[in-house]
Amino acid sequence: MQQVLGRLQEHGATLVALTPQLPEHSRGLAAKQQLGYELLSDPGNAYAAELGLRFALPDYLRELYQSRGLDLPKYNGEASWTLPMPGRFVVDRGGIVRAADVDPDYTRRPEPEKTLADLGRL
C-alpha cells in the first residue's frame, strides 16, 4: 500500500493499518519499511475478533513459526497464537464501510489498485 499512498492521499483518504503487534515491535517495522502511514495496535486481536476476523493458528503453523524463530506471543504481547485475517476496508467520512476485501487465505490479498478503484467509486 505504501506504493500508492500518495494517490490515496490525492483522493483525500487516510491510510491506517491495524496489527496485533505491540507498538514497540511495530515501530521498528515501520521505520525499516519507511511506512508513511499509521500502524495502530489491536492488543489480543480484540477488534479483529469483534469483526469475526481473528483465527487461531493450528498446531502445525505454530510449530513452523517457532522453528523459524517467530515468537508470536512475544511480538503480540499475549499467548493466544491468534492472527487477524488480512483485510482492506474503504470507509467513508460518515464511518460507513463502502468496500471490503477479506480472505482467510493470507496469501491472497487485493492489489493496491483495487483499493484505489474502490476509493474512486465514492
State the low-pLDDT regions, or none.
none
* Radius of gyration from CA coordinates: 15 Å
Q: Quick check: average pLDDT?
A: 92
| Number of discrete helical segments | 6
Explain what you see.
This protein has one domain: Glutaredoxin, CATH 3.40.30. The chain has a two-stranded parallel ribbon with strand order 1-2. It has 122 residues and is of the alpha+beta class. The protein is globular and about 45 Å long. The mean pLDDT is 92. The longest helix is centred in the first third of the chain and has 11 residues. The chain has six helices and six strands. Helices cover 37% and strands 20% of the residues. A hairpin with a 5-residue loop joins strand 5 and strand 6.
Task: Give the topology, please.
Elements: H1 5-10, E1 16-19, H2 23-33, E2 38-41, H3 46-50, E3 54-56, H4 59-67, H5 72-76, E4 82-84, E5 87-91, E6 97-102, H6 112-120
Parallel strand pairs: 1-2
Antiparallel strand pairs: 3-4, 5-6
